[in-house]
Amino acid sequence: MLKSKSKVFTILWSSLLALLAVLVFHQRVNAQSVNDYIEQNNIQPTNIQRVAGTFDQWFGYRNGVGKPEGVVIHETATPGATAWNEVTYFNREWRNAQTYVHAFADANNILQIHDTDYGVWGAGLWANQRFIQIELCRETTWDNFARSVNNQAYFAAYMLNKYGLKPSLADNTGSGTIWSHDAVNKYHPSAGMHTDPIGYFNQWGYSMQQLFDLIQYHYNKLHGDPGNPAAGSADNGSNADQGIVRVNSNIPYTQLYTEQADGSLTPIDSWVLLKNTDWLTNKTMDYNGHRYYRVSTHAWAIDSDVHITKPIPNQK
User: Fold this and answer.
1) Is residue 194 located within the same domain as residue 111?
2) d(CA 126, CA 190)
3) Is residue 35 in a domain?
4) 102, 210 in Cβ contact below 8 A?
């Protein structure tokens, strides 16, 4: 009897591990494919729509009116609430809730409710004195999630361009023009210790790095470079200056790597490239016996998992 129970337990445990492996693989595949889905379906962001707001605390940033230093990315944590629902709530309740942001994005709208020349109450005193702030509404379908983050990324890129700021991600360094609320609390703790939008992004296998790549893509488009939101954006801009690598067909996907301050390369969690997909690259790096190809601003593919289909011009 004990042996039988042990056998049943072993079978159940093995089944659970197999299920977890499938779920993890599914999440890792989705991590790559949100931006790819946007690019393949030519999903365009909606226009930024100005809506009357009720926030009457008009204060400039620490460097003055009209001088923000970047954008903070939030999510509402309110399933089913649209951007219009959130606008109504914030305009009615900000005095009680003691919070207000500049804009909301969902799958169909980008609604701006406060002048971005002035600060808001969204992420604590340190951030409020420095950043424009936008909330992402929670969606329930893959398509709507992709459309909503595309709108959120476009708003952030538009604001960086408007104020003469260049895209840089602060989440891993504590310095940059794009911050998650999580990063604000990590480097400059504020009231509430919020960690958004990380948890919500994880539900869709998405990350701040991928949102940043999408922001960089829209920023480049505003500067006349169409780029590629799936592959990220090379620093030197024009595709004519880039080669192409293809993920090998004998593997389901390849892990990506990011460069550390000491020059080493370490794996990026939950971000992979699928087999037989092509990626722009404009730079290589040799590390620990391998050559790595940059396929996004901060992401590198290893030579053992990819092969060149178009060499990088003027590079041996």
Assistant:
1) yes
2) 8
3) no
4) no
What pLDDT sits at residue 235? 37
Separation of CA 85 from chain center: 24
- Grouping H, G, I as helix, E, B as strand and the rest as coil, residue 258 is strand
1 in a domain, yes or no?
A: no
Kindly state the tokens that stand for 131: 């950043």
Range of the domain at 109: 48-222
CA distance 276 to 253: 9
The pTM score is 0.66
Are the beta carbons of 272 and 281 closer than 8 angstroms? no
Same domain flag for 265 and 300: yes
Q: In this structure, are 81 and 172 located in the same domain?
A: yes
What is d(CA 225, CA 233) in angstroms, rounded to the nearest whole number? 10
Q: Examine the pLDDT at 237 and tell me if it is beyond 50.
A: no
- Give the residue-averaged pLDDT of 249-260: 88
Q: Are residues 214 and 119 in the same domain?
A: yes
Residue 264's SS3 state is: coil
Tell me what pLDDT residue 6 has: 54
Strand bridging mode 103-105 / 131-136:
parallel
* pLDDT tens figures, 259-268: 888 889 998 8
Q: Which of 195, 222, 249 is the last residue of a domain?
A: 222
Whose structure tokens read 């041996």?
Answer: 316
129 located within any domain:
yes
CA-closest candidate to residue 110, choices 77, 164, 58, 150: 150
10-43 pLDDT, tens digit per residue, is 555 555 554 554 444 444 444 447 998 998 888 9
Distance, CA of 173 to CA of 215 (rounded, Å)? 18
Q: Quick one: 203 and 63 in the same domain?
A: yes
pLDDT bin (cut points 50, 70, 90) of residue 229 is: low
173, 191, 222 - which closes a domain: 222
In the structure, what pLDDT confidence band is assigned to residue 281 with cuts at 50, 70 and 90? confident
Residues 58 and 205 in one domain: yes
